[in-house]
């Protein structure tokens, strides 16, 4: 399997006589590392194929400005264009005639016209017309993606086997997205330079929510079944990280989150913040699509439900604040991802989530449908024991508050 | 990619077979502590679960997910009390190493 075993080059693990001249990683076997009892980090090469499933490319209105758009995804360059009939179409960007970039072209009626020689391509991937030619040659067809425009978001179906999406593999509807009771999407996106497995891992990683995102989980459970991976999390506020509410402002007490990945890349988080005088209902999207094996685009979207305490205007302000808050959360993750190594054999303690079982679930999207094994899709539940984390984190929060109080007393 | 085994299954408590006292579905159960539970279902046990069959979809966009079976939780709790499912002793865990 081309297994690469990499020792960790931290100074104390080197034995006598080892030359410490290595920069970055080298490939050696565990035996060659010569450190008996040292756990080696193992990582296979990143997969060369891209996950089968629906991928969100962003808010659909972004692509409805009358212009073609370039999107780098699944190791290819794609063109997205809205045809005259209103549909959003996704094609391979390179014209099969002479290889020009269709996303630099022009939308003409229902077709995208190539900037090089005006060849016209339809949303089905077929060349419809060559204005300067009597006939379109045989095999004038490029790859076209199945698209779905739902709840204000554009999705494409990626399948390395080339099959259409099965009817039961869907993205659930989000009621608030089309309701006047809710705000519009506040949408952000960033490019992350690592393999997208890192972001999926987070769905089982309770402890990082405390250490990286400064939240305080108190309940944590995962459920994997079929193409859906769910995380149920309850949390409380971090008074050491969030200043207490000013007089008259509601104080946040905690949150309840039910987040599910529907397929390999699209997570819907049904997220409620509990304040002392109200519940704030929001739906958060955490979605990504791979640019290539070592980079991906990470999206966040949020809508907030209006209420008596949070009327129109105030709800929009809140959605904007939450959007910024989530973007900061992404940056916190990125700081970790930027510097970490890929690891296929994480060393887990009992208070960690089910990383191995999550990756077993995730593998179903990287093999042919015929090779999906029961263990990848069978229901698995994991409820984490938060007793010890809560105890230790309470102490840490109190210590932080005490230190801050002491510092403010001695200017 | 190779599917690997959780290091905690290799070095810690094993998965143990358990039948639900309500419907008889057999699942794999692992307890790392009183409050931690892993449950491995298969198609047969999922189809046998009465609560699951009775459960309507919950609210919200993720409402289709079945969050868990209370009868099975009770069966696991009872099995732990009866000693049929073992829970590692927290004291030895703490003093280990």
Outline the structure in words.
- The complex is a heterodimer of chains A (411) and B (97).
- Chain A is α+β, with helices and mostly antiparallel strands.
- Helix content of chain A is 18%, strand content 32%.
- Chain A has 7 helices and 20 strands.
- Chain A has helices spanning 30-33, 197-201, 206-211, 314-339, 355-362, 374-377, 387-409; strands at 4-6, 41-43, 53-59, 69-73, 76-82, 88-92, 106-108, 111-113, 120-122, 127-129, 144-150, 153-158, 186-192, 216-225, 228-236, 252-262, 266-275, 279-292, 295-304, 380-383.
- In chain A, β14 (216-225) and β15 (228-236) form a beta hairpin.
- Chain B is globular, with a radius of gyration of 16 Å.
- Chain B is 36% helix and 13% strand.
- Chain B has helices spanning 7-11, 43-48, 50-54, 70-82, 90-95; strands at residues 16-19, 26-30, 37-40.
- A 3-stranded antiparallel sheet of chain B has the order 1-2-3, with helices on one face.
- Residues 91-97 of chain B have low confidence and may be disordered.
- Chain B contains 5 helices and 3 strands.
- With 97 residues, chain B is α+β, with helices and mostly antiparallel strands.
- The termini of chain B are far apart.
- Classes of the chains: A alpha+beta (411), B alpha+beta (97).
- Chain A binds chain B through residues 1, 44, 47, 172-175, 221, 223, 225, 228, 230, 232, 258-260, 268, 270, 283, 344-350, 354-357, 359-360, 363, 366, 374-376, 378-387, and chain B through 1-8, 12, 32-43, 46, 60-62, 64-68, 93.
- β20 (380-383) of chain A pairs antiparallel with β3 (37-40) of chain B, so a sheet runs across the interface.
Strand and helix layout:
The complex is a heterodimer of chains A (411) and B (97).
Chain A: E1 4-6, H1 30-33, E2 41-43, E3 53-59, E4 69-73, E5 76-82, E6 88-92, E7 106-108, E8 111-113, E9 120-122, E10 127-129, E11 144-150, E12 153-158, E13 186-192, H2 197-201, H3 206-211, E14 216-225, E15 228-236, E16 252-262, E17 266-275, E18 279-292, E19 295-304, H4 314-339, H5 355-362, H6 374-377, E20 380-383, H7 387-409
Antiparallel strand pairs in A: 1-2, 3-12, 4-5, 5-6, 6-11, 7-8, 8-9, 9-10, 11-12, 13-19, 14-15, 14-20, 15-16, 16-17, 17-18, 18-19
Chain B: H1 7-11, E1 16-19, E2 26-30, E3 37-40, H2 43-48, H3 50-54, H4 70-82, H5 90-95
Antiparallel strand pairs in B: 1-2, 2-3
């Amino acid at each position: 399997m081309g297994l690469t075993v990499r020792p960790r080059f931290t100074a104390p693990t080197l034995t006598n006589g080892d030359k410490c001249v290595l920069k970055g990683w080298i490939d050696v076997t565990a035996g060659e590392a010569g450190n008996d009892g040292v756990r080696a980090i193992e990582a296979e090469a990143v997969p060369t194929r891209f996950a089968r499933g629906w991928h969100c490319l962003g808010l659909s209105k972004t692509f409805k400005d009358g212009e073609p758009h370039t999107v780098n995804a699944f190791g290819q360059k794609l063109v997205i264009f809205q045809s005259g009939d209103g549909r959003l179409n996704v094609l391979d960007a390179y014209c099969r005639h002479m290889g020009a970039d269709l996303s630099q072209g022009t939308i003409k009626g229902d077709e995208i016209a190539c900037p090089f020689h005006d060849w016209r391509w339809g949303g089905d991937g077929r060349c419809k017309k060559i204005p300067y030619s009597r006939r379109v040659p045989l095999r004038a067809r490029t790859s076209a993606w199945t698209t779905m425009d739902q709840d204000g978001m554009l999705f494409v179906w990626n399948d390395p086997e080339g099959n259409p999406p099965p009817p039961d593999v869907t993205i659930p509807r989000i009621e608030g997205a089309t309701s006047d009771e809710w705000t519009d999407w506040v949408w952000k996106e960033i490019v992350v330079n690592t393999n997208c497995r890192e972001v999926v891992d987070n769905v089982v990683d309770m402890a990082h929510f405390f250490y990286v995102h400064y939240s305080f989980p108190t309940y944590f459970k995962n459920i994997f079944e079929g193409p859906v991976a769910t995380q149920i999390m309850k949390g409380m506020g971090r008074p050491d990280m969030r200043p207490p509410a000013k007089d008259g402002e509601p104080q946040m007490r905690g949150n309840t989150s039910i987040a599910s990945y529907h397929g390999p890349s699209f997570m819907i988080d049904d997220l409620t913040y509990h304040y002392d005088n109200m519940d704030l209902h929001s739906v958060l999207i955490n979605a990504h699509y791979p640019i290539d094996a070592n980079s991906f685009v990470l999206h966040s979207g949020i809508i907030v439900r209006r209420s008596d305490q949070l009327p129109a205007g105030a709800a929009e302000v809140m959605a904007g604040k939450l959007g910024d808050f989530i973007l900061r959360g992404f940056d916190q993750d990125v700081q970790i991802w930027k510097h970490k190594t890929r690891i296929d054999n994480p060393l887990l303690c009992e208070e960690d989530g089910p990383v191995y079982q999550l990756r077993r679930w995730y593998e179903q999207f990287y093999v042919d449908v015929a090779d999906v094994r029961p263990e990848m899709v069978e229901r698995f539940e994991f409820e984490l024991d938060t007793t010890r984390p809560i105890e230790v984190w309470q102490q840490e929060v109190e210590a932080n508050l005490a230190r801050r109080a002491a510092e403010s007393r001695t200017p | 990619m190779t599917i690997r085994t959780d290091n905690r299954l290799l070095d810690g408590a094993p998965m143990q077979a358990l039948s639900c006292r309500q419907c008889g579905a057999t699942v794999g159960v692992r307890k790392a502590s009183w409050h931690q539970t892993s449950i491995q279902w298969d198609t047969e046990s999922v189809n046998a679960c009465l609560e699951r069959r009775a459960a309507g979809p919950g609210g919200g966009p993720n409402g289709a997910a079945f969050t868990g079976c209370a009868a099975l939780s009770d069966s696991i709790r009872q099995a732990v009390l009866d000693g049929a499912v073992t829970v590692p002793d927290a004291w030895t865990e703490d003093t280990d190493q």
